Amino acid sequence: MKQELKQTFDKPASTVIKMFGDRQYFERKYAELGFKNVQVLEHDKKGDQFTIRVRYTAKADVALPDFAKKFVPAEMTITQRDSWDMAKKVGQLEVELAGLPLKVGAAMRLVDSGKGSTNTIAWEIKCSVPLVGGKLEKLLMSDIEAKADADLAASRKILADY
């Protein structure tokens, strides 16, 4: 399943990319979102390349139908890796959901737009479970969409400090 989401900011891409390349941004954002057990597992910044891998615990923001409860725990352990080419303002997002048969990733592109900037996130979700895989993909995309507004609000709040 593929889905594209957009985040808009009131500051130029050159400012937003500084935030996206800052470890403290991720720590603050996850705290703001109320995620538990946040651990930075990896953090690297060399030249224009930035990578961070963080593990945290979060609850699904969508009601789980009966078939999904067999696959999806009430609280998920998530490992997320963000990597950015700071000069080109393009990035990759990889998400691992512990114990779930889903592969989740996204390509990101940050550009100036109007008086601010836009980050386009092209999500791709794949599930290897026969028969219910498509339903699990849609369920996860619904959860991503449900979290998107809070994620954007937290990012905009933190952006004020850059």
Automatic annotation (TrEMBL):
Look up and give the organism this protein is from.
Solimonas marina
Q: What is the lineage of its organism?
A: Bacteria, Pseudomonadati, Pseudomonadota, Gammaproteobacteria, Nevskiales
Give the source's domain of life in one word: Bacteria
The record, for Pfam families, names: DUF2505 (PF10698)
| Name of the featured protein | DUF2505 domain-containing protein
